[in-house]
Amino acid sequence: MDKNSEIIRIEIIRILNENGKTRGTELAKRVMEKVGNEKTVYREISALVESGDIEKRVHSRSHIEYELVNLYESVNNQLKNLHSEVKTIFEEIENFDNISKIESLSFHERLRSIIHLIQIVQSTD
Asked: How many domains does the chain have?
């Protein structure tokens, strides 16, 4: 699974955590606002249904709802993912601090590194 697919799956699960039952078109629209195109979003939704992570309820052809199967486990996994991202960012900041002390980097190198770290933190949702 590539990185984009993983991001789309996480976003689908996050939206379902927030809203509970969600119509298929609304779910896809909200995911596409953040990442992905229509084809990949619907492919990942189908993959999550097949794996049993989310449940698909068809009321009519135009009214399809999705719901998380195990909310507790899903929230727990999201918190673990967030924790690992925060830990990675913290380690990068510590590493930058150590390198800047040891090598006495120039002002421009430190500034570039700090901007890069800020972009990493901002990309964490």
From this structure: 2
